[in-house]
């Protein structure tokens, strides 16, 4: 499978109508842009509620340059989507009737379910909202697909590496039994189970994607990769718990999107049900992440802190299955992908500073 060049997948996508539910977010808009480039007809339905322009404008924790920078990221998403011909439909997928109207008008052949709260911290703070955005929307997607399995050949579910819980060894693969902890991880695992149940009982073609420690342009979810570069640019210290020896399988958004596009293009239809780790496939330390930041912002301050007792033990996610079945091969190392992202972020921060000063 690895001998299949990426761009030769285009003919498998040009006749597909792919609907991204909750697709205006960080992962979704990047996936939509790439699918459109590959020739698919792409639609996004999103209630524009999580990490939205309005939330950014009114959030008292965001002021000055940060607020303007995040506003730019969000506006750039919409401009890029419009220029790429992606249809954006304002829809609350928690409402079956609302989502049903989108299905009727767009007539998808594939559906990617990615509606969710963006972080485990936010899910813990608002568990009811986390369940609504993750599981009610998924129920509605599955119920709308169920009577149309002849027309909709694939449901892709965006899960998370957090379903594995604490790693017992250095790495996990898709056969490792999940041991999720917390609201966010358990909602993701419940979603996986629900998708597989609809697969066995109603004949849906399904794909589950498990990403890890994402970073990339136009993200405002405040993952550690974003917090580090932003802190460096604002003179705040980068806190290294336990000396920064915690390990994560950091993955550049371009690699994740490449893997997801492959999984959509190479799906074999209703008889195909697969789960894939789509990551870089090599865990790195938090100290490694900080070193890249310091290479871009030399004055970066590093401070060690005691290790938090409730932090999960993570490591590498094996991508052997994705390599074998999808020809997936990530290309962006921390030193190339994360450095490029940090340089981009520094430029965007300067852009926002100039805008604030001009006002």
What do you see in this structure?
Pathway: Bacterial outer membrane biogenesis; LPS O-antigen biosynthesis. It comes from Pacificispira spongiicola. Residues 18-278 form the NAD-dependent epimerase/dehydratase domain. This protein is α/β, with parallel strands linked by helices. It has a domain at 6-212 and 253-279 and 316-330: 3-Layer(aba) Sandwich (Rossmann fold), CATH 3.40.50.720. The chain is built from 12 helices and 15 strands. Helix 4 (96-106) packs across helix 6 (127-145). The longest helix is centred in the last third of the chain and has 25 residues, at 334-358.
Provide the descriptors you would attach to this structure in a database record.
single chain; 359 residues; globular; NAD(P)-dependent oxidoreductase; 15 strands; 7-stranded parallel beta sheet; two-stranded parallel sheet; NAD(P)-bd_dom_sf; alpha/beta
In short:
By secondary structure, the chain is of the alpha/beta class. It has twelve helices and 15 strands.
Topology:
Layout: E1 17-21, H1 26-37, E2 41-46, H2 53-58, H3 64-83, E3 87-90, H4 96-106, E4 110-113, H5 120-125, H6 127-145, E5 154-158, E6 171-172, H7 182-202, E7 206-210, E8 214-215, H8 224-233, E9 238-241, E10 247-248, E11 251-252, H9 253-265, E12 273-277, E13 284-285, H10 286-296, E14 302-305, E15 316-317, H11 320-326, H12 334-358
Parallel strand pairs: 1-2, 1-4, 2-3, 4-5, 5-7, 6-15, 7-12, 8-11, 9-14
Antiparallel strand pairs: 10-13
């Amino acid at each position: 499978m690895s001998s299949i060049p990426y761009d030769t997948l285009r003919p498998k996508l040009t006749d597909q109508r792919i609907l991204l539910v909750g697709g205006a977010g960080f992962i979704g808009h990047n996936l939509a842009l790439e699918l459109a480039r590959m020739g698919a007809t792409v639609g996004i339905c999103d209630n524009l509620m999580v990490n939205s322009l309005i939330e950014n404008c009114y959030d008292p924790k965001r002021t000055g340059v940060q607020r303007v920078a995040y506003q730019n990221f969000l506006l750039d998403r919409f401009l890029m989507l419009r220029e790429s011909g992606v249809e954006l439909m304002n829809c609350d997928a928690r409402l079956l009737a609302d989502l049903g109207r989108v299905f009727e008008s767009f007539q998808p052949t594939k559906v990617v379910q990615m509606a969710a709260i963006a972080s485990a911290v936010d899910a813990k703070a608002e568990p009811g909202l986390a369940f609504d955005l993750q599981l009610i929307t998924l129920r509605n997607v599955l119920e709308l697909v169920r009577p149309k399995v002849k027309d909709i050949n694939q449901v892709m579910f965006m899960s998370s590496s957090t379903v594995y819980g604490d790693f017992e060894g250095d790495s996990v693969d898709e056969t490792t039994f999940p041991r999720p902890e917390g609201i966010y991880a358990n909602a993701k695992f419940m979603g996986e189970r629900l998708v597989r149940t609809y697969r066995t009982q109603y004949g849906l073609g399904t794909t589950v994607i498990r990403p890890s420690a994402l970073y990339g342009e136009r993200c405002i979810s405040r993952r550690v990769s974003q917090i580090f570069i932003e802190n460096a640019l604002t003179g705040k210290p980068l806190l290294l718990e336990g000396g920064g020896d915690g390990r994560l399988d950091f993955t550049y958004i371009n690699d994740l999107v490449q893997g997801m596009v492959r999984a959509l293009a190479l799906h074999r239809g209703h008889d195909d049900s697969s789960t894939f780790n789509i990551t870089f496939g090599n865990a790195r330390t938090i100290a490694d992440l900080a070193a890249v930041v310091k290479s871009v912002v030399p004055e970066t301050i590093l401070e060690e802190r005691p290790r938090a007792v409730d932090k999960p033990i993570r490591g590498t996610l094996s991508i052997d299955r994705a390599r074998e079945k999808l020809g997936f091969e990530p290309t962006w190392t921390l030193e190339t992908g994360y450095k490029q992202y940090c340089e981009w972020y520094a430029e965007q921060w300067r852009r926002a500073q100039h805008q604030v000063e001009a006002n």
